[in-house]
Design a protein that fits this description.
ATP binding, protein biosynthesis, three-stranded antiparallel sheet, Glu/Gln-tRNA-synth, Arc Repressor Mutant, subunit A, binds glutamic acid, alpha/beta, three-stranded parallel sheet
Length: about 450
């Protein structure tokens, strides 16, 4: 098995790209195959080295690595050679229509109730007409002459699929400026690199029909490659996932502090009937199967992904986060706080509550309680028995219990209404700080 993930470095990766990358990687790893990173960068105007670098970084963050990397701009000579083959066999033909002419033709056809496909007028051009145009400084773009057939394949996700080539325009493979289009370069690469499985988004289904036709014209065997198209992701309302919102870009999610395992586990389970489990690709690969992915589009719900992130953090052992915790924070802190954070970076705020400065909160109605609390504040050493003993004694002396007892103490000691178990937090805060906070709060 040899697969490729082929992003165009014309922008940053989003969750839809990540899902495709994960699928390719997991299948390659599961079957002992080869995973290639291919940068589809022939659109030199829109491709940027910064994006290429960001793509690599984002893939690594997801826990993906690659066995080889290819840049299409390094292979221009190969595409030129392949184009010659198609020109010789008459499958690639020069066209001189301008954008305006083409738009006009499309409009005419539509008015006549005919599908707006290219009429192949350029095929009727004589050699003399072409030579004259070239001599006048015109440069042609080149179209691939599609076969008059339907192309069929057994899709790894969508089942039996076919594309009727006669209902499509002959695709432009080379622009007038000589640059190659992805539709073509991708086929040359897949063929020459011996790609066995093309796994990509459903938006490429029509391309598959066209590309299989080009593949065959270049001497490839129609059944040499398997195809699988993952249905597109939608947002939580069922609308298209928009790159513009930025909320679904990997960079953004990473900056927001999402754990890669949560994102990977969530994406891998999307569109399947399985419950998402946070896991890195290496853990998912052994059981990864495309046949579990359903035919219909899947919703990417940021809230569900956050819930998984939270669940994941909740179960993380101290050893997994030790190096990332603030200086001085130990296992007791982590175990107390991990169930109270949506994002890992919130642990920093909780560490401030323990060891930094907070603004204690208190209502005047609670000043009496807080004064009593100061008077009965036990001497150190403190441990997890301190809080229950102290609050037990306060309950007995003040007659307060439950929320009316615990909430004012929590607000005074942490400046928050909710938070980790004070049984663990109180000893971490320590007597000196606790006393200072209670005194401030008691007015
Ligand atoms: N560069 C194409 C894209 O990003 C690659 C599609 C493919 O996998 O062939 O959509």
């Amino acid at each position: 098995m040899k697969v490729r993930f082929a992003p165009s470095p014309t922008g940053l990766l989003h969750v839809g790209n990540a899902r495709i990358a994960i699928a390719n990687w997991c299948l390659a790893r599961r079957h002992g195959g080869h995973f290639l990173l291919r940068l589809d960068d022939t659109d030199t105007e829109r491709s940027k080295p910064e994006y290429a670098q960001a793509i690599e970084e984002d893939l690594r963050w997801l826990g993906l690595d690659w066995d080889g990397m290819v840049r299409q701009t390094d292979r221009l000579a190969r595409y030129a050679a392949a184009a010659e083959v198609l020109k010789k066999s008459g499958r690639l033909y020069p066209c001189l229509e301008t954008e305006e002419e083409l738009a006009f033709k499309r409009e005419q056809r539509q008015k006549q109730g005919r599908p707006p496909i290219y009429d192949r007028a350029a095929l009727k051009m004589t050699k003399e007409q072409l030579d004259r145009a070239l001599a006048n400084g015109k440069s042609p773009h080149w179209r691939f002459k599609l076969s008059h057939t339907s192309v069929e394949w057994q899709d790894g996700v969508l089942g039996r699929r076919s594309v009727k080539l006669p209902s499509l325009s002959d695709p432009v493979l080379i622009r007038a400026d000589g640059s190659f289009l992805y539709t073509f370069t991708s086929v040359v690469d897949d063929l020459e690199m011996g790609i066995t499985d093309v796994i990509r988004g459903e938006d490429h289904v029509t391309n598959t029909g066209i590309q299989l036709d080009i593949f065959t014209a270049l001497g490839g065997k129609g059944d040499a490659m398997r195809f699988a198209h993952l249905p597109l992701l939608t947002d939580s309302d069922g609308g298209p996932l928009s790159k513009r919102t930025g909320a679904v870009g990997l960079r953004q999610l990473r900056r927001d502090g999402i754990e890669p395992a949560a994102l990977v586990g969530y994406l891998a389970a999307l569109g399947t009937s399985g419950d998402p489990v946070a896991a890195m690709p290496a853990e998912l690969a052994p059981g990864y199967e495309l046949s579990r992915v359903s035919h219909s589009s899947a919703r990417f719900d940021l809230k569900q992904m956050l819930a998984l992130n939270r669940k994941h953090l909740h179960g993380l052992p101290f050893a997994a986060v030790q190096a990332l915790l603030p200086e001085g924070a130990g296992e007791d802190f982590w175990l107390a706080v991990r169930g109270n954070v949506d994002l890992f970076r919130e642990t920093r705020d909780w560490w401030d509550v323990v060891a930094g400065t907070i603004v204690p909160l208190a209502d005047a109605a609670d000043h009496d309680l807080l004064r009593a609390a100061i008077e009965t504040l036990p001497e150190e050493p403190w441990d997890e028995a301190t809080w229950p003993a102290w609050t037990g004694a306060l309950a007995a002396s003040t007659g307060r219990k439950g929320r009316t007892l615990y909430l004012p103490l929590r607000r005074a000691l942490t400046g928050e209404d909710h938070g980790p178990d004070l049984k663990v937090f109180l000893p971490l805060i320590g007597r000196e700080r606790a006393l200072k906070r209670l005194t401030l709060a008691a007015g």
